[in-house]
């Protein structure tokens, strides 16, 4: 757990079922919400966050339960370390609940929470980099080397997809997860990532092409015939839009 969260834990406590990891949704459940369904859900969770900010204990529990699965999927894909996902999700909610008094509902509670999750993953990378290592490669790079992409009937939300996403650069993987798996609008995904909307669109398009290429290489007959462009994974999360190689071109 990241240092400094003891203070947060004194004031807020996660629901016991979430702390124990019993609230995990099975693989294949919770497919990405379509635009028509995401808006009402976001309005509901934002209302829960505002009620929780006012001290409503029932709203706190409902807020955590409503967004726990989205946070868990996001940190698992972003960190490329499923073993750390539960700890990162708990860290995210501890941070969020301790700072809930600052949430004013200007963006959806989901976008706000995923921004916090992103910082939690970034901090975990920094913490891991500061520890003595047997290798100068980061943990997630090792995980990518060990991952063996296999054919599957389309892009499914499971272990094989996680392996395929692990082969993408970090920024493209994040954009794909936010928009295609979690169903965030591009504008909110841009807010979470701290980059222009056009950059998110470019990253998603390139991620789709790369994933289609990986599926084609594995012999999946349902995969689009899109050539893959081999790329090495990025070594860290992008901190800003400046100098981004995925910045969209004119038009």
Any overview of this molecule?
The protein is mostly helical. It has a single domain, classed as Rna Polymerase Sigma Factor, Chain: A, CATH 1.10.1740. The chain has 11 helices and no strands. It has helices at residues 6-11, 16-19, 35-53, 57-79, 85-98, 109-130, 139-146, 159-166, 170-181, 186-193, 197-217. It is globular. The chain starts with 5 loop residues before the first helix and ends in a 34-residue tail after the last helix.
For this entry, give a set of tags:
251 residues, mainly alpha, Rna Polymerase Sigma Factor, Chain: A, disordered N terminus, disordered C terminus
| Structural class by SSE content | mainly alpha
The total number of structural domains is 1
State which percent range the strand residues make up.
under 5%
| Major sheet size, sense and barrel closure | none
Task: Give, in order, the helices and strands.
Answer: HHHHHHHHHHH
Work out the number of β strands. Answer: 0
Topology at a glance:
Elements (H helix, E strand, L loop, with lengths): L5 H6 L4 H4 L15 H19 L3 H23 L5 H14 L10 H22 L8 H8 L12 H8 L3 H12 L4 H8 L3 H21 L34
Short description:
By secondary structure, this protein is an all-alpha fold.
């Amino acid at each position: 757990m990241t240092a400094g969260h003891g203070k947060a834990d004194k004031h807020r406590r996660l629901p016991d079922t979430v702390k124990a990891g019993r609230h995990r949704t099975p693989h294949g459940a919770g497919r990405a919400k379509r635009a028509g369904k995401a808006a009402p859900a976001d309005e509901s969770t934002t209302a829960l966050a505002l009620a929780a900010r006012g001290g409503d204990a029932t709203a706190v529990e409902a807020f955590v339960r409503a967004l726990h699965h989205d946070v868990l999927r996001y940190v698992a894909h972003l960190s490329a370390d499923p073993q750390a996902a539960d700890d990162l999700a708990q860290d995210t909610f501890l941070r969020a609940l301790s700072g809930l008094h600052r949430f004013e509902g200007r963006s959806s509670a989901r976008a706000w929470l995923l921004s916090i999750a992103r910082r939690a993953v970034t901090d975990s990378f920094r913490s891991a980099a500061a520890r003595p290592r047997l290798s100068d490669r980061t943990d997630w790079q090792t995980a990518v080397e060990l991952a063996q992409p296999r054919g599957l009937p389309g892009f499914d939300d499971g272990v094989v997809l996680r392996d395929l996403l692990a082969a993408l650069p970090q920024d493209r993987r994040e954009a794909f997860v936010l928009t295609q798996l979690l169903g965030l609008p591009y504008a909110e995904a841009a807010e979470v990532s701290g980059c222009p909307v056009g950059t998110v669109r470019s990253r998603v398009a390139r991620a789709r092409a790369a994933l289609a290429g990986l599926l084609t290489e594995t012999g999946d007959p349902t995969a689009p015939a899109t050539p893959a462009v081999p790329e090495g994974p990025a070594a860290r999360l992008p901190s800003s839009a400046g100098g981004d190689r995925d910045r969209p071109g004119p038009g």
